[in-house]
Amino acid sequence: MNLYEHTIIARQDVSPSQLKQLEDKYSKIVEKFDGNVVKLENWGLMNLSYIIKKNKKGNYIHFKIKADGKTISELEKNEKIDKNLLRYLTVRVKKFDLETDYFKKIEEKQLAIK
Asked: Which one, of 16, 11, 90, 102, lies nearest residue 51 by Cα?
């Protein structure tokens, strides 16, 4: 089994319930093909570097997945036809960084330190 970090960007006008459905949908696809979602992070609505399909912002969802290549190809095949997604990216990594929350709000980080 390989380790992957997979990020999807959903359209800015997607509702929170639709975001939850996207998370569940892609988690189930990974599990269906004998993969394992180690960690799922919802990074929230952020500005895009450039306009994609007339959108200036996107909802970012990040998965840390333990799976094989067949699982990732099936996941990406389903994402290509999803109208709610703007982009997706999969990167193979050697190990996961499970401690760091890169997109946690500053106030939450300061409260965690105290």
From this structure: 11
> What pTM was computed for the model?
0.84
User: At the fourth CATH level, which superfamily is domain 2-113?
Assistant: Ribosomal protein S6/Translation elongation factor EF1B (3.30.70.60)
In the sheet that holds 55-67, the strands lie side by side as 36-52, 55-67, 2-11, 85-93
pLDDT at 59: 93
| Pairwise CA distance, residues 79 & 82, whole Å | 5
User: Domain map of the chain by residue range?
Assistant: 2-113
By CB atoms closer than 10 A (0-12, 13-18, 19+), residue 8 is buried
CB-CB neighbours of 59 under 10 Å: 24
**The pLDDT of residue 104 is above 80:** no
Residue 107 or residue 82, greater confidence = 82
